[in-house]
Each structure stands twice: as structure tokens, then as C-alpha cells.
Automatic annotation (TrEMBL):
Identification of the protein by name: Fucosyltransferase
Gene that this polypeptide is encoded by: FUT13
Main location as per UniProt: Golgi
Transmembrane segments annotated in the record for this chain: none
Gene3D superfamilies hit by this protein: Glycosyl transferase family 10, C-terminal domain
Membrane-topology annotation of the record: Single-pass type II membrane protein
Ranges of residues in domain Fucosyltransferase C-terminal: 222-404
Swiss-Prot/TrEMBL keywords: Glycosyltransferase, Golgi apparatus, Membrane, Transferase, Transmembrane
Phylogenetic placement of the source organism: Eukaryota, Viridiplantae, Streptophyta, Embryophyta, Tracheophyta
Amino acid sequence: MPLKSLNVFTIFSMLGFTFLVLFISGFLDFPAVSNSIIQPINQQPTSSGPESGPDPFTNLISAFRKWDSQVGCARFKENQIGFVSVQSNGSSSLQKVGGESELECRELKMKHVSVLVKGWTWIPDNLDNLYSCRCGLSCLWTKSSVLADKPDALLFETTTPPLQRHIGDPLRVYMDLEAGRKRTGVDDIFISYHAKDDVQATYAGALFHNGRNYHVSFSKNNDTLVYWSSSRCLPQRNRLAKQLLNLLPHHSFGKCLNNVGGLDMALSLYPECANDASVTPKWWDHLHCAMSHYKFVLAIENTATESYVTEKLFYALDAGAVPIYFGAPNVWDLVPPHSIIDGSKFNSLEELASYIKSLANDPVAYAEYHAWRRCGVLGNYGKTRAVSLDTLPCRLCEAVSRKGGRNAKAS
């Protein structure tokens, strides 16, 4: 009996050893780990194109329907949880917009604030208004010295505020939304695009492009992929744009690298973009409409500066195109999840161009860049809009109220 037990043990040992050898040798076909895991929808896709081969498309709505059937909002939301949570965990790129807590409301020293905008400024006239803000604060924002004959604050943008201020004088507010964001040294409140300054005003609001044609085309060009328009021909930006656009079919409408036969040619290509046939059009009248016919819009900032994300990117999002972006290193703190192609994440412009061409022929992958809007996954973008020019009047009036307006200490 002991001998028989030994034989059984020996047999099982030999079988186990044989199984191990076969496994190591690869004769047994186990599924690879990479094939058994569903790949997540990444912020920056890593695939070079559709696995089933190119599928050229022009109808954006049809692309949405394909995405709905193959991916859908539920899966998209699940795969963006990590990205959204990282954005939400106290991003320092955006100022907090408070609620109406008792503590915050007690900080206000005035119930009504008037702001008089001084000198020439590009701030649109339709920002002039009487606003009803939180905590019962009312805010008059105006360019009229008649309506605000005794303002609590003076807002300067292109001119320097008074060098001195005495008690009883209006507070001096200075705004600089350019990349350098230079304070004057004599301002009481400073407005810029950056969260570290007194009041933040991002470029994401609708008032940066007020009064333009908002016709958005459902039909996308499939032969000319990229829209580019620039009339400030900075050498570094021009060089980058030229290198990339040489690799991609594109239309350039501005003064820089123009390839459409001159300025204001967009209406020749897209007559439906005309606002008013009786009025001589300006290029900005049909900007969004023209952009909407392209799958991609090239957006290159003047400089790669933290939080300096300008209308170049937000115009493209509002027009229903996918921005190809070069600029702020923290751009993902300010935009919706999976909404842009970050050019800095590619090893070369050739690799980037190859990805764009593949994406243009993959309706499902392309539609996913619009999923944030269709599925309501905004990430920090809601906060970016909340601290834009659109909400500046109330937020500035709150800052003036906290300081006490004319009763603030002299400086």
C-alpha cells in the first residue's frame, strides 16, 4: 500500500511538471491580460486610428449616433471619474465662487456698489447693467458718468489709475488680461485671468464674442480638416503653425499664412454665415459659423503661460469643433474632460498630424471629443465659466463692498 501511494504521488507530480512546462512553452493558449481588460477612454487617446479601417464622415449628427450605440454617456462618465475628481480636488487654477453663507455675506460692508468704467476699453457696452448679485447686493456697472456720478470704484484698463487716493475717493480698479498681467502699483483691486490675483476673469464667457453669427453647421469638411485664423503674425507662433499645417489639409483665413485668396473669404465659402446681407461684414461677424464647418481648429497662444487660456480655444469649443491646442501647461484645469487635443502631449508634429488624420476618419473617436457637452460632464469647465467676464460685475462689486468702497483706507 505505501508503494501504491507513492506511485500515485509520483504520477501527479509528473503531470504537474508537464503542465508547467507546457504553460511556460506557450502551448496552452491563455488569453493575454491586455486583451481581457476593457481599455479606458483616455484624456489623450493612444490609438492611431480606427481598428476597422478608415470611415470618412461629414455628418456630425450621424457620428454622434454611432458613438451613442458603441460607447454612450454611461461609459464615458464612468471613465472620466478619475479625471473629474482630480480637477475637483482644490484646483488652484480657478478662484472659488462662493454661495450665500452667512459668514460670506457678513463680509460685505455695502448693499449697493457702482463701478464706472473709465477711458477706452474693449469691454463690450452690453456689460453695462444693473445687476442683482448674491447676499442682496446690487451692482451698477456703467460707462456713463451720469448714471454713476459718485461711483464707488473706477475701472481702468488701458490707462493708469490716479497715483493717490484719499478717503472718500473711489477705489482704483485695474484690469490686465494679457499674459504679462502687470499691476500698476497704484491699484486697489487688480483683475486678471489668473487665480492668484484679486479678481479672476477667464476668457471662457460668451461676452468675449458677443454679437456674432452662431449658426453651427452639422456638416464637417472631410477634405479640409483644420481651420486656422491669425492676423498677429508672431514669429514663434507662425513657425509652429506653418510646420503643423504643412502636414494637414487646412484653410487659413487671417493675414498669417493665408491660403484662401485673401481676407474675409469665409463668406465666399459659407454664405450662410452672413449676419446681415445689407451690412458690410467684418471677419469676427462669422467667425464661429465658419469654424463650425471644420473638424479641427488650430489654437496657438501668444505665449505658453500658466492659466493663460484665451478665446482662441473657447471659440473652437463654442463652434462645435475640436481645438488643437498649444499654450498653457495647466490647460486641463480649465477645460472640459476629453475636449481638446493637447499638442504638447505628442512626441512630434508628424505624430500629431497622423493622429488628427486618423481621428478625422473615425466618427466614434471624433464624436467622443463632443461627449462632455452631450453628456453633461464639464469637470472644471463650469467653474471656468463661473469666473469669466460674464460674471465679473457682481464679483468685482463684492470685492469693492468688502473693502468698503469710498470709505476704504487711503493709499
